[in-house]
Design a protein that fits this description.
442 residues, alpha+beta, six-stranded antiparallel beta sheet, four-stranded antiparallel beta sheet, 14 helices, 24% strand
């Protein structure tokens, strides 16, 4: 319950910030705001201050700011001269565009405040980020695999720029994205020069080209109602062997589990200096063609607590915000190009789950970081040029600027209907994905 409530509250913060953007710029443009609503559907409570009614509704999946003259005169009564001057529809197109853009803009600006604050407070970060960029696993058929990378390789420089840590390697790789990349790698037999092609997905960092950091086979997560927990596996167990095959790193586990094809398997774990044999029956998760056998475990990621000075926190926070925006835009481009499966689309259920999982930890820095991440997703989503979204209204305004007059009412209505169908289909698919994740874990 705490997870659900925490997730809803965090989502509510993002919706409030979004609608506050519309509200503040509308007030600045002297538009009369009739209603400020968090949520949809029946009202839980409301109160009127001045000329605006503020309300909270029962469905916490969004909100809206209702302005005088927005969408026409719904009541069919003539407006007074004073009301006309304060009507959204009567304002110059640039003011209307500013009001519409203010919501997404607030969501996109929020992380530039939250993330510096999170870095200043301090947070746990993966320990491998400040360690040498040594490879723990090379994804098969990836650009890195085709370039000749091997497990154990340590990256020393990228296109002539030193890479003393995993973080430095990530930043250097991002800086040369879209170009042919030369990497100097230290190997047991000596240094090796490897080449990544220009079309490698370097913008996604080392993992994007198929390189993963070293990861010990220590259990850091156990999923309920899955084979590992049922068999008695515990957190901090180190997996030593599976069916007689030694396990050197976490990346050995998926292949060994998949090779079992669902048959009972013996997993040897080290716990407090003792070795135990556990009997597990892998569970098939997902659809027939794309699913796989799983034990219901996750790795224990070694972390270190880091706190930055005010200046460094600002630089780190701003840099991370820019990276998140770039990554979100890249995801959308690849999604629409068909390079990423639509199964990766998540809906409100997944958002509440993600936010709730962080809220449960009661870690302020993590909560701020998750709010920043989700705020960017919400801001960019609303800027998509789809009618009924803010991006669609911005598109209408841009057309009006070019034509010197707005689109006809009939054209706008048709576009709104098409946009509504698109959003309904998108939300239906997102809810389907969320339900599949909840039901099958896939």
């Amino acid at each position: 319950m705490l997870k659900i409530v925490g997730g809803i509250l965090m989502l509510g913060v993002l919706v409030f910030v979004h609608e506050l953007g519309h509200f503040l710029i509308a007030k600045w443009c002297r538009v009369k705001v009739l209603k400020f609503s968090l949520g949809f559907g029946p009202r839980l409570f409301s109160r009127t201050w001045g000329e605006t009614e503020y309300q909270v509704c029962i469905i916490p999946l969004g909100g809206y700011v209702q302005m005088l003259g927005e969408g026409g005169n719904e009541e069919g009564q003539p407006l007074t001269e004073e009301d006309k001057q304060r009507s959204f529809a009567e304002k110059p197109v640039l003011q209307r565009l500013a009001i519409v853009a203010a919501g997404p803009a607030m969501n996109l600006l929020l992380p530039f405040t939250l993330l510096p604050l999170a870095f200043f407070i301090g947070m746990d970060q993966p320990a491998f980020l400040d360690r040498p960029a040594c490879v723990g696993y090379v994804v098969s058929e990836s650009p890195a695999a085709r370039a000749g990378f091997e497990v154990g390789d340590c990256i020393k420089s990228i296109s002539g720029h030193p890479a003393d840590t995993w973080t430095e390697a990530e930043k250097n790789l991002l800086s040369v994205a879209g170009k042919r990349v030369s990497l100097l790698v230290e190997r047991e037999k000596g240094p090796v020069d490897l080449q990544l092609p220009a079309d490698a997905t370097a913008v996604e960092g080392l993992q994007g080209v198929g390189l993963l950091p070293r990861q010990a086979a220590v259990v850091g997560f156990l999923q309920d109602n899955m084979p590992a927990r049922k068999a008695g596996m515990q957190l901090n167990d180190r997996i030593v062997a599976i069916d007689g095959s030694s396990v050197r790193s976490w990346y050995d586990i998926p292949a060994l589990v998949e090779a079992s094809e669902g048959a009972a398997m013996t997993v040897v774990v080290e716990r407090s200096g003792s070795f135990l044999n556990l009997q597990l029956d892998p569970k098939f998760i997902g659809e027939k063609e794309s699913g796989r056998y799983m034990l219901g475990i996750g790795p224990q990621v070694e972390t270190v607590f880091k706190r930055f000075s005010l200046g460094d926190a600002f630089r780190e926070g701003v840099g991370r915000s820019v990276e998140l925006v770039d990554m979100t835009l890249l995801f959308l481009r690849k999604l629409f190009a068909g390079h990423i499966s639509a199964k990766n689309i998540g809906g409100p259920i997944m958002v509440v789950q993600m936010a709730g999982s962080v809220a449960e930890e009661v870690d302020l820095a993590k909560i701020l970081s998750m709010l920043a991440f989700l705020s960017i997703q919400l801001g960019i989503l609303n800027l998509l040029p789809v009618p009924i979204l803010d991006g669609g209204h911005l598109l209408f305004g841009a057309v009006e600027l070019v034509r010197g007059k707005p689109l006809s009412e009939q054209a706008r209505e048709i576009a709104q209907q098409v946009g509504l169908v698109f959003i309904i289909l998108l939300m239906a698919w997102a809810f389907y994905n969320d339900i599949m994740r909840l039901t099958f874990g896939g």
